[in-house]
Write the structure tokens for this entry.
Amino acid sequence: MKSRNQTAQGGQTAQGGLITGPSPPRWVIPLAVVIGLLAYLSTLVAGVQIWAGSPDEQHGFLVIPIAVALLYLRRDEFPHGESRIDLRGLALIALAAGMRIYGDQYIRPWMHMWSLPLWIGGTVWLFGGWKVFRWAAPAIVFLVFMAPLPGQVQNAAGFPLQRVAATGGGGLLQLLGQPAFVSGTTILLGENVLDVERACSGLRMFQGMLAVAVGWSLFCRYRWPRFLLMFAIAPMIAIFVNVLRIAVTGLLFQYVSGDAGRAFSHDW
């Protein structure tokens, strides 16, 4: 008969095999993440420039602090004593490296920022094991919101959202008794002509609104049904807010001045 210790060791070997190894020191995971962030330093600098230069992307400054706060709020669930080397994390690291190589080869710089959460997730999985990775996964996934939307997504969804914004804004103005007529992405409002351009489509507002919904759901620790409901409602709120913005802009054009309408639409 095997002793209890021998049985336990045999079970651990069977579960781990060549995939998992011994537990690393506690400082290994933070050190690996810091080294990786240094490798992504140019990507982070480019991201900061995008956040600072585009009013639609300024929520990127808040993503990393919120992700750190989510880890702190989940500190009581950290699987102490469960961290171990897990080679399956190399799959995410390899995927992140592949995205960076592909982005450099085919001039897709946005792929660098999108690969950063994958690299962090792979590092945590490699040096912390599956349970530690699962604990940190909500905060790691939230890091996706610091990456700008790819140009292909903006081009594909921009025009349909322009049409929705123009139609909704014109319809709301009509409900308010205004002489609004919608033609494509243009609203004819009395003597004023409002062109709903791509920047006014509300597409970039989606990302910020989804970040708010996901962050709030993780903060409140919603279960899947309520989490998915928040995720579904967020785009509707983004569309409604954009339509409301266009309608208010039209009212300002009608009753105040064109300068007031432009200031509200683009600055406020």
